[in-house]
Write a structure and sequence with these properties.
The complex is a heterodimer of chains A (217) and B (313). With 217 residues, chain A is of the alpha+beta class. Chain A is 22% helix and 24% strand. Helix content of chain B is 62%, strand content 1%. The chains are: A alpha+beta (217), B mainly alpha (313).
Amino acid sequence: MTRWAMVADLRRCVGCQTCTAACKHANATPPGVQWRRVLDMEFGEYPDVQRAFVPVGCQHCDEPPCLDVCPTTATRKRADGIVTIDYDLCIGCAYCAVACPYQARYKTERASFAYGSATQTETLRFDAARLAVATKCTFCVDRIDAGLAKGQTPGVDPEATPACVNACIADALAFGDLEDPKSKVSQLLAENQHFRMHEELGTGPGFFYLWDKEDAS
Amino acid sequence: MKQSSTRGPTHSAKEAYNFGPNPWQQTSWDGRAAGNFIGGGAGGGLIVFSALSGVQGMALTLMLLAGLALVGGGLLSVWFEIGRPLRALNVIFNPRTSWMSRESLVAFALFPAGLAAAVGLPGAAALAALLACLFVYCQARLVLAAKGIPAWREPALLPLLLITAGAEGGGLFLLARALPLPQTQPGVHWLWALFMALVLARALLWLVWRTRLAGVAAPRALAAIDRAGALLLMLGSLLPLALVVLVVNGPSGVAATAWLLGAAGLAAALAGAWFKFTLITRAAFNQGFALKRLPVRGTAHVSGTAPSDPKGV
């Protein structure tokens, strides 16, 4: 069995937002919608201050709260752990948006474009099916499926890997199969101390954050 | 505090664009969604009280129709909020896990049962009351299932919302009794005592819920809850209590008694409605983002647990 997951190394992320831009480019999300975004968090008071850049988005949870609440079955979880939305079923009630503890879901009521009127690219890639319904990070599921069909390995072959991971300049993002001990994500998790966001809610996020080496005290 | 580099200003009119690490008010559901909980609770409660009252004839018909109108108005209100209203019937597709689907399915049963009761079909009033209870229960569970909002997922909210619906419905019932409706029977007089019990239970449950939220919900959410709570306790509890005490002890006539009880009911219903409006539109802060640990970079910094209140940059 496969369980796709993402790992973000908080020590490596520099907050450049390249992943955010890559996601927007790959998925043609409208202004204000960031399926992948990077929070810039500051801790402490001057002069003892630490800063962390935190990639966030849909955590593709084991027990997604959005899945249970969805009244239409538009939100589904695949056997490989990816949580998807059927835009043709969704009624845009936004119940999933208030149920998600990661604020990963968006609903755009009407078409909007970065510079007012649509650019040529925005015109080409505009998808009316995504208006007034819930949208979120898909782990670039189309790339994964297409890559797998070609015999590629997501997380290894760029063509089969989420755009944000490909774009990361600091190698802070990794993607792969949690069930495969040889995958990059499995190895990173074995070698480093990690946590998941809001784990106490029992959602079982498929998104891990590395914060130190495994042997650190 | 600095702001998220990817978003606009915090605490501004553009709340929708505040995506920093600290909690912010959800913007997915607005007053239209609140209207569903307000109408559904009050309408469901009114149907239950009407069925319990033993009132017959046109008075019962009008009360049941008013209850159904409130429930229907609430559903219509939320219909205006959904993004794809023409697909609204898809809402019933997931009764296996979704309380919104269950709420909708119960509503589908409640309306024919309520209409049957309104035209005087024997036994229909009891069925309508049962379905109204179920409808309100579904609504309360619907809110509770929203894990993203700490104030909503607190289990004490479930009895609070149920009792609030009862208090609102009881209040509207008392108000209806004060109106010059054609009432063939006097109704059951102990219902105002039940109404007061519900009002007092609501105040108590609000205090329990508020106590459990301390330290869990965002400060701004708590401030909104406290403001609505003050109204709930003063206008929605103490005032009705004072009016009922006046009725019990005062040498007032039948008409004055009815109007005093009606005023008590109206106050309780309005305070409940405002509480729900606040719950959905002003106290629904998410929990933001949190790091359990800070990243350890280089060798100079000592690793530690992340403070609970990060500053978004």
